[in-house]
From TrEMBL:
SUPFAM superfamilies: DAK1/DegV-like (SSF82549). This is DegV family EDD domain-containing protein. Keywords: Lipid-binding. It comes from Actinomyces bowdenii. It comes from the Bacteria. One of its GO terms (molecular function) is lipid binding.
Length: 273
């Protein structure tokens, strides 16, 4: 019997995609404080334990794959919830820090979803997440700066007129991998970094080993997302990258609180079996 996989809504999986692959999703929460500002909070221990127990009814082996501990306290609650379930149920819940979020987290969860056992699923999730790249461009760094998700050096870029950083989600947090001027150049840089991560030739310097990859593109503006998809497809083809799947995903509302409006993202991960 395949393992059961549980993740959180930072994976940005659509309901149909999660259902098709038997993945349970626990929601991150959004709130409005007394000043009218939006904030987020992690799922409770009880919510996570309930999700793990539900998954354990399908399979005794449950892989709980969550967003990076550098971005959220979800992993702390996940470990406590897993301890409860492992003590109370005839199940084994293994909790993994993906070290990433968003599309890269989705690709890792999907890679693990068809695993034959927990060891196999854990290996697939670890490899997918560790070898993945999650890039974003956003209209303003203000939201990330206010929530403390970026360092002070990166935050200062938000005050420089016209500067658009290309952000990457790394295990240690979010960092700027390049800064450019203007929205058009930012989108081109976003695509270049994704193509390079896919083994293409968009950037100079050492390239990752060429091999089949899966991608996820993300955004909330349908027009901008369609343009990004077309430009990315053309760039991947021109660079000789081998892609076996490209998903189009939304951006979870909790992530939108931190990224702000207008965000575009691309995730690249190896195609694993």
């Amino acid at each position: 019997m395949p393992i059961a996989v549980v993740t959180d809504s930072a994976a940005c999986l659509t309901r149909s995609l999660a259902q098709d692959h038997g993945i349970d999703v626990v929601a991150l929460h959004t709130h409005t404080d007394e000043t009218g500002a939006s904030t987020t909070s992690r799922p409770s221990i009880e919510e996570l334990a309930q999700a793990y127990r539900s998954a354990a009814r399908r399979s005794r082996e449950v892989l709980a794959l969550h967003l990076s501990a550098s971005l959220s306290g979800t992993l702390d609650n996940a470990r406590l919830a897993a301890q409860q379930v492992n003590a109370d149920e005839e199940a084994h819940v293994a909790v993994i820090d993906s070290g990433t979020c968003s599309g890269a987290l989705a690709l890792a969860a999907l890679a693990a979803s068809g695993a034959r056992d927990l060891r196999h699923g854990t290996a697939l999730a670890h490899e997918s997440a560790a070898r993945s790249h999650q890039y974003f461009i956003i209209d303003s760094l203000g939201h990330l700066a206010r929530s403390g998700r970026i360092d002070r050096t990166t935050a200062r870029l938000g005050g420089v007129l016209g500067i658009r950083p290309v952000l990457e989600v790394a295990p240690a947090g979010i960092r700027a991998v390049e800064t450019v001027r203007g929205a058009a150049r930012a989108r081109k840089s976003l695509i270049d970094h994704a193509v390079h991560a896919a083994g293409g030739t968009a950037l100079s310097g050492p390239r990752p080993p060429a091999g089949p990859v899966r991608l996820a593109i993300q955004g909330e503006d349908p027009t901008a997302l369609d343009e990004l998809a077309q430009e990315l497809r053309a760039a991947l083809d021109a660079a000789g990258a081998i892609t076996v799947q490209t998903l189009t995903l939304p951006i979870d509302r909790a992530l939108r609180v931190h990224l702000g409006p207008g965000a575009l993202g691309i995730a690249v991960a190896p195609a694993l079996e």
